[in-house]
Specification:
The complex is a heterodimer of chains A (259) and B (156). Chain A is mainly α. In chain A, 86% of the residues lie in helices and 0% in strands. Chain A is built from 9 helices and no strands. Chain A has helices spanning 2-30, 36-50, 55-77, 86-124, 127-133, 138-176, 181-191, 194-221, 227-257. The N and C termini of chain A lie far apart (48 Å). With 156 residues, chain B is of the alpha/beta class. Chain B is built from 2 helices and 8 strands; from the N terminus they run αββββββββα. In chain B, strand 3 and strand 4 (80-87) form a beta hairpin. Chain B has helices at residues 2-28, 141-155; strands at residues 39-45, 57-60, 63-73, 80-87, 98-103, 110-115, 130-132, 134-136. Chain B is elongated and about 85 Å long. The longest helix of chain B is centred in the N-terminal third of the chain and has 27 residues, at 2-28. Chain B has an 8-stranded mixed sheet with strand order 7-1-4-3-2-6-5-8, with no helix packed on it. Classes of the chains: A mainly alpha (259), B alpha/beta (156). At the A-B interface, helix 2, helix 6, helix 7 and helix 8 of A face helix 1 of B.
């Protein structure tokens, strides 16, 4: 009987967490009239924390992943005399999959965990309660700017990741391994489509941004206000965001490129 | 002062992101160079389209003049019909032109080669929705090998 009760409690906990997360999102996005004059500086500040400070790790990872893709792809393609297809291989892999997915994973580790820890500590030190005492809605003052900053910055980061990765592939493929410069770019241009490949990648990273930021904010806002609770919440953010990104990526890929 | 620094770096970040999008659009996907202009459609019926796909290019002497817009099977004689979207700046092909399915390189992807035909008083210019009568089907490697083996067998 105890087992059954445990199962029931677990299920109820899960569902009430989903409910609280939805409540948080609705409160942050639609809670009252948006005040652009007051909200915009907060948004810019968060864009700096979430986006600009993630640039270095995104750019360096993009460069190296592009270089590794080119190096590995070359060794296989050269056997079939198809090393000219290195360009489309690197660019399609980056634009469709690796750009959005790896950016989202890095984002969850770099920015998501920071968001969770920050909001969790705000809760633990009762800053959120103080805001409420002063009749400031913490959902709109604290959560909303961070949410929008995440949603705006992740597609930009993913685009930068893909661009830098393609340049990295160019460095290894063309400059180092000697693939023809003209065919590298022209075959790439012939096989990459703006709408099908680039825009679908952007849509993917928008979805990932939504999910990652939402999970990070909810985990922070819902954290048990102790040092242990914050550490658990940070771990949960990274684990759940990563799993959600990988699962959603499969669904989105099946919908976009599966036919 | 610090907020100014923050705003400047955010401005750089957003500008960099937009620059990346433009780089990807122009340099990687070459959007705007093909496919964005006005097009007219031409149909062509083949016996076998081989590996031709939607968005395969239509070339005249190596120059891309259009793309395959759709491929479907004619329900009456079960022949594949390809619908081509040709750029309107190339709108004076005579209806004696011929289409053949070619392969770029030995194992490359397949494209349509458009060979402009002769022009005299009785020949009309291809317009929107016209059919090209003179088509050559794709070379299917398996059939070629089969024919080769068959002819080898006959020699003995």
């Amino acid at each position: 009987m105890d087992k059954i009760q445990q199962l029931g409690r677990h299920t109820l906990d899960r569902f009430s967490a989903v409910g609280r997360a939805t409540y948080l999102l609705i409160g942050a996005l639609f809670g009252g009239r948006p005040n652009l004059v007051k909200g915009f500086p907060l948004f810019v500040k968060q864009l700096y924390v979430v986006g600009v400070l993630s640039l270095v790790i995104i750019l360096v990872s993009g460069l190296f992943i592009g270089m590794v893709l080119a190096l590995q792809g070359y060794t296989v393609l050269i056997d079939y005399g198809a090393e000219d297809s290195l360009g489309p291989m690197v660019s399609l892999a980056l634009l469709r999959e690796l750009g959005p997915v790896v950016t989202a994973l890095l984002f969850a580790g770099r920015a998501g965990s920071a968001l969770t820890a920050e909001i969790g500590l705000m809760k633990a030190t009762e800053q959120l309660s103080s805001l409420e005492m002063m009749a400031v809605d913490p959902l709109r003052r604290v959560v909303a700017p961070r949410f929008w900053a995440g949603v705006v910055s992740m597609p930009l980061l993913a685009l930068l990741f893909s661009s830098v990765g393609i340049l990295g592939g160019h460095i290894v493929g063309v400059e180092w391994l000697g693939v023809d410069h003209g065919s590298f770019w022209s075959i790439m241009q012939a096989s990459v489509d703006f709408k099908d490949d680039i825009m679908n990648g952007v849509i993917k990273s928008l979805v990932f941004a939504f999910v990652c930021t939402w999970i990070a904010l909810f985990r922070g806002y819902d954290a048990v206000p102790t040092s242990e609770g914050i550490s658990t919440a940070t771990t949960q953010t990274v684990v759940q965001s990563s799993l959600a990104v990988l699962g959603l990526d499969f669904v989105l890929t099946a919908l976009m490129f599966g036919n | 002062m610090t907020s100014r620094k923050v705003e400047i770096s955010v401005g750089f970040f957003v500008a960099l992101g937009i620059a990346a999008l433009i780089f990807l659009a122009l340099k990687v996907a070459s959007a705007g160079v093909t496919g964005s202009g006005e097009t007219y459609t031409i149909h062509a019926k083949f016996d076998n389209i081989g590996g031709l796909k939607v968005r395969s290019s239509v070339k005249v002497g190596g120059v891309i003049v259009g793309r395959v817009e759709s491929i479907h099977l004619d329900p009456e004689d079960y022949a594949p019909v390809a619908t081509l979207a040709i750029d309107t700046q190339y709108d004076n092909f005579p209806d004696t032109s011929s289409l053949s399915i070619l392969t770029s390189g030995l194992l490359g992807e397949q494209y349509l080669g458009l060979e402009p035909g002769f022009i005299d008083e009785t020949v009309e210019i291809l317009g929107n929705g016209d059919y090209i009568e003179d088509t050559k089907s794709a070379l299917v490697l398996e059939e070629l090998i089969g024919q080769f083996l068959f002819s080898q067998g006959n020699d003995d």
